[in-house]
Amino acid sequence: MMKVDAYGPMSADARTGLIAKLAEASFLMQALRLQNLLEIRANFNPSQPRIPRGQPQGGRWIRFGEGSGGSLGRTKPGLLLVGLDDDGNPPEVPETRPTNTRERNRIGRSVARYLKGLPTSRKVIILARLGWLANEAGHTIRSYFDEPRSLIELKRRAIARRPGYDIHHIVEKTPARRDGFPEVMRENIDNKVLLPRYRHWEITGWYGTINEDFGNVTPREYLRGKSWEERQSVGLFALRKFGVLAP
User: Fold this and answer.
1) What is the spatial distance between Cα 107 and Cα 124, in angstroms, rounded to a whole number?
2) Which are the contacts of 80, defined by CB distance < 8 A and separation ≥ 6?
3) Is the pTM above the cut of 0.85?
4) In which region does residue 48 sit, left (phi positive, over 0), alpha (psi from -120 to 50) or beta (all else)?
5) CB 3.0 to 4.6 Å from 193: which of 45, 122, 129, 154, for a disulfide?
6) At what angle do helices 120-127 and 132-143 cross, to 10 degrees?
7) Please, which residues have CB within 8 angstroms of residue 127's CB and are 6 or more apart in sequence?
8) CB of 140 within 8 A of CB of 197?
9) Which residues of 154-185 are buried (b: 16+ CB within 10 A; e: fewer)?
10) Cα separation of 157 and 32, whole Å?
């Protein structure tokens, strides 16, 4: 029987979805309250830029209105993400969406790498300020924070696509096709896992990068003419190396 409550007639699935949305909104409100508390008690403002490392007084907070040029000003317009300490330079996100796809992807990947080590509440606060990037790549950035999963779970998740994730072939399908392996092996469900998109890109790039562990050739070149089992072994090694497959 369909339950009627303060929200009107509603199915069980609809109620579950509404509860999940309310929980997410509650979490965001708590994060924003934390931000306001920090600003009030410590005069802290997450949008306040810092002097880039390598310059005089690198890492020091820049007061708003402090110099528009020289070492104390911004080098280019945009929103400078601010970290919790002085380790590394936070990525810069332009307020206007770049028209170049490669540049947008570069920014998204740098933001995901930067945010990964921050507390969840801090991630929420920063993502809420990212405008076009959050709208366009929010799912992809959040997927980068995933903890390693078992191989069984990665394969199970590959049954359906999800925003921010890509289907990845443990044995690369195009090189395998060129070496004569049939489609029934390449496209078998046992050869597919679901990965965070940026992790997928990192692994693809790794396959094409010269590696001394593979005789100073790329892993892709090394695997030419190799057996399916050896290709699988290298594919699983890559999944562990890039933190998506649990040890």
Assistant:
1) 18
2) 47, 49, 50, 74, 90, 92
3) no
4) beta
5) 154
6) 150
7) 115, 134, 138, 141, 142
8) yes
9) bbebbeeeeebbbebbbbbbebbeeeebeeee
10) 32
